[in-house]
Amino acid sequence: MGILIKNGKILDNGELVQRDILIIDNVISKIAEQIEDQGYKEIDVKGKLVSAGFIDMHVHLREPGFEAKETIATGTAAAARGGYTAVACMPNTKPVTDRVEVVKYIKDKAAKEGVVRVLPIGSITLRELGDELTDMAAMKEAGIVGVSDDGVGVQSSRMMKEGMKRAAELGLPVIAHCEDDTLAKGGSVHEGIFAEKNGLKGIPNEAESIHVARDIMLAEATGVHYHVCHISAEQSVRHVRYAKQLGLKVTSEVCPHHLLLTDEDIPSLDSNYKMNPPLRSKKDREALIQGLKDGTIDIIVTDHAPHTEEEKKKGMALAPFGIVGLETAFPLLYTHLVLGGEFTLEEIIEKMTRKPAELFGLPWGRLEEGAEADLTIIDLETEREVNPQEFASKGKNTPFTGWKLKGWPVMTVVAGSVVWKRDEVLKTV
Ligand code: DOR
Ligand code: ZN
Ligand code: ZN
What we know:
By secondary structure, the protein is α/β, with parallel strands linked by helices. The protein is built from 15 helices and 19 strands.
């Protein structure tokens, strides 16, 4: 039996047009102005936006080892509520995802308990300690989509070069958390206005951009696909722009919080504004917007980093870095960047669907006939407040509590199956 999605609005060359979408055998079999119902299961979405499912290349699902923060079940449920149909999960788990057994564990758990696709990322170095390479070839066989020591920077240039060499041979991207410990150590917020006012040690822009510059040279030497994680500093954007001009395979990602907030927006010593890299200056924020506009920054990711309330209560200096992001990303971007006039709806959606798929060679991210039916359906009209108590994520650590947003996902479809829907909305559709 097929599923017929009636009266959706899809983006067609930048225009929103009304279409019916027929899904048969997990595949989008037809998109047309009118499709006759021939006994399909019909879902009338009454003019809501239908997009290819979002793909988030930077998520912390915390399993194995940190199940108090998040699990594959709760993290993927949060993803579905955010309109995501695929998430790549970072290897800073316990044990670290540095060998086949852990990759397999994640894949098995995801198959049993996950509601969206889970794409494991393996670590570059054993235990993310930065001194010995992992068996990337074996982990690739087991299904990793890239390598990263996310959570920490690879401090040794030699290790990074060796890691890149191996990744290049295997055709794996190196997804880099850029942070020079000698510059960042002990900092909890951006080295700037907020740090000064509150007597906190700051993390300077160079802590990130020095690694970006170094790694670009190593990427040139090794030919690897080098991808910069959660870019935050103006100087890093400049380096990536230059690398692209040189024709290197260098790409980058940015998070909604860095696009929308600066250190001046931190209201008090609230650790829900603490993440790594930190919220930076207005000038940095402007450079990120510009970089996203001109293609220097390729994709938008959340860096969804759930922590327990207990951990986050330790205050700005001591609480762990990280905020949740999966369940608020699109409404934040839609309300503030699309309705705010800085980007078109198409630009934002591209950077959450087609672009990440293209960059990492994934078969999803397109709403077209013949594609696997990974879809998200979004209500662009209804305004709702961000309420962490409604999150499916175990993590409630968000700086966006109480923000009034539009653009909330109402239904998520993975491989032709409805994996989540917002009941009160779908009763009326
Ligand atoms: O804010 C962050 N949280 N940045 C990181 O690099 C790691 C992450 C985490 O694992 O909590
Ligand atoms: Zn990171
Ligand atoms: Zn991360």
